[in-house]
Each structure stands twice: as structure tokens, then as C-alpha cells.
Amino acid sequence: MYGEMTTRERLIATIRLEEADRVPVTLYEINPYAGDDWRVKDLSYSRLLRLAKELQDTFASTPIGDPNFSRILEAAGEDQVQRRISDVGVFYSSADTIEAYVKKRRVGNSLFYENTVETPKGPLHSVERVDDNVATTWQVEPFIKEEKDVERILSLPYKPIKPSLNHFFEAQKKLGDRGLMLLSLGDPLGVTVPLFRYEGFLNYAHRRKNEVLELLNTMHERFIDLYRYLTSMVHGTVFRIWGPEYVTPPTMAPSYFDEFVAQYDSELIRIVQESGNYSCIHCHGKLDAVLERIVEMKPDMLEPIEPPPRGDVTLPELKRRAGDHMCLMGYIEAWDLELGSREVVDSKVEEAVSEGAPGGGYIMLPSATPIVSPLPRNIEENLIQYLQSGRKYGQYLRRTSTPLG
Questions:
Q1: Which one-letter DSSP state was computed for residue 395?
Q2: How far apart are CA 71 and CA 371, in angstroms?
Q3: What Rg, from alpha-carbon coordinates, does the chain have?
């Protein structure tokens, strides 16, 4: 029998596909130790955060270039935080070589960001919206609205960026051994698709695939430099790679996953792993048609593995097909936490642990976390139940007879 692990030890053991002292349970995107997280400053989240310190296995997430994070903080008046977290230049090229500016305007309960980028072939424009008390960013107008806009983006000069990691190291010091640091970055697809309206991207992908691939190749060149820089600066950190879900079936055929995701992300994953860090593929939705393709990319982790009907592969099947190759994270659907009862949440957690825990390599997390303020009372109660049930059912020592090592 082995003693209780620290959260950091527990998460690392599970990522390495070992049985830890218990199944890790996490809210994932909620870090109770982050003084600059908007939830930490929101009184309606205080009870949940207090219990999260006691019950959850924390990932301390630092997004890089994520508008769903930076714009929200900026809208809340956190300009200094936004700059030191998300200074990724213009289309991941140094802003020193490109003229770009942002105009902000308020209309009612919304803040609009009007972006302009000057290019050798003419200006580019986009508009984003952030609503009060809702932690997400809405696209109003994309950068790419006509074919010339693709040419304009490709005409811009490129100079590698080196984002400041001051915030990361401050958060790491606060966290200690109470969790794992996590950097959340897009892949080439993840940052290319939002340049279009989504239906516009799908149309381009089918009619003008070569131009889409040229954009992806351009972003990949920049991401290779960015990932190499970031991985040289940190160690033992999870790199959460988002973007693959944009082309999973039934939206697009599996062959597009090979061309738009696998060929790029495989190299990013290799860079992360060779540096002593951990790679995690973030991919919502249906996985059946691309699961073996993800396995071939060799990430350390896959999340949020959603159950049917939103997903299309059960947890036992995921364990059979992928569990020997990577850590599986998730299988608790957000709508059960939003709309279900505490009894439903407890039952879902017990089922997920019983199916995911055997043999190790399973971390429990929800498919999404709340983005509204104030936190609705029923969601607060369900998230607390989720944490409590995860700790109650997730004890390996009660469920298995084979100890580690």
C-alpha cells in the first residue's frame, strides 16, 4: 500500500497511465489559486472555489493568445493581466513589424472590439463582442470575408514572437505541488478557422482547399517557433492544444482531419514531449471516425471525451481503443451539471469512475465550466456534488487489489 500523493504527483502518475492513490477529479478551467481569474474575484463563486481547494486536483491554466480569455479580462479592466498573458502580436507575428490597432466601443451591455490590420495588399477588419457577465467572446465580423482577405493575411511579414511568461511563473509559484501548470494554445487549424465565419471556412475548405492549406502552413511555421520557445522555458507543464474539433465528422470527412490536423499537430506534440512537457489534445464532439488518427499522433492526453449523444464512443470503448496509449480526461457532460439534479450528477460520476478507473489513466473533468456571473445556485450545487462524488468513488485502494510498483 502506498501513501497519499500530492496533487502534482497524482496527476503525473495518471498521465503516465499508472494507477495513482485515487482518480483525479478536476474542474479543469477553474483554478482557485489564481488571484487574477475573474471567478476568484466573483463572490458567487467563493463557496465553490473554497471547496475546490479541498477536493479538486488543480490544473493552473494560462491561455496564450486566446480571445475568450484576454478580451474578457480586458473588458473587466484587467489590461495589465491581458498584456502579459496574451501578447501574441498580429496573427502570431511580432507587432513590431505590422501596423495594427483596436478601437473599443460600448453599446448597452456589450463591449465591441473593432480590429484593423494594415497589410501590403490593403487593410483587414474584424469585430468581436464581449457581453457583461458572460465569459466568452462572440464573433461579429471575421477578418476573412472575401478572397482578397486571404491574400492580405499571407502578405504580412513574419517575425517570431516570444510572449512574456511572467504570469505563468507567478501562478506556478502560487500553485506549488497542489496541481499542474497548463498552457492552452491553438494549433494551426484552431487559429485559422476563426479568421472566417465557420460556414465560410467550410465552403473554402471544399472549394479552395489549397488556399486553406497555405494559411495552415503559414500558421504552422509560426507555431513551430512559438512551441519551441515556450517548451524551452517550462518543464513538466501540460500543453493543451485546441482546434481539431473544427473538422471532426459529421462536419467534414476524416480525410480532412489528416490534412488539416494530424500532419501539423503530430509535430507540435513531438516538440512538447521532447522538451519534458505533456501534450493534450482538446477535441469536443464525435471521435469514433478519428480516434485511431488521434492515437497515431501520440498525445499524452485527450479531453473532454464526451458521452453519447454528444459524443459517439462510450468510455469502455475509449479505454479499449485508446486507453493503453494516452490518458483519457472527461466523460461528465456539462448539461448534466447545468440541468440535472445532485442525484443525477452523483450517478454519472459513479458510472464514469467505474468505467474509467480500472488500470489507471483516467482523469475526471466536465466538458465545460460555467461562463456566467453570478453563478446559478443549481449549477453551484451540482459542481460541488461532482467534486464530492469524485472523491467518494475515486479511491483506487478500495476498488483494486493491485498496488503500484
A1: B
A2: 14
A3: 21
Span 94-110, pLDDT tens digits? 888 899 888 999 999 99
**Whose CA is closest to 227, among 288, 162, 165?**
162
Contact between 226 and 301 (Cβ < 8 Å)? no
One of 3.40.640.10, 3.20.20.210, 3.90.1170.50, 3.90.550.10 is the CATH number of 7-64+163-399, namely 3.20.20.210
| Secondary structure E strands in 199-275 | 238-242
* Residue 33, burial from CB neighbour count under 10 angstroms (0-12, 13-18, 19+): middle
pTM: 0.92
Looking at residues 307-314, what average pLDDT do you find? 96
- C-alpha dihedral (48, 49, 53, 58), degrees to nearest 10: 100
CA dist 347 and 201 (Å) reads: 40
CA–CA distance, 174 with 169 (Å, rounded to integer): 9
CA atoms of 65 and 191, how far apart (whole Å): 9
Cβ-contact 94, 163 below 8 angstroms:
no
One-letter identity of residue 287: L
Distance, in Å, from the CA atom of 105 to the CA atom of 127, rounded to the nearest integer, reads 11
Q: Looking at the predicted structure, is the pLDDT value of residue 404 above 50?
A: no
CA-CA distance, 112 to 91, in Å (whole number)? 20
**Phi, psi for residue 328 in degrees, rounded to 5:** -100, 135
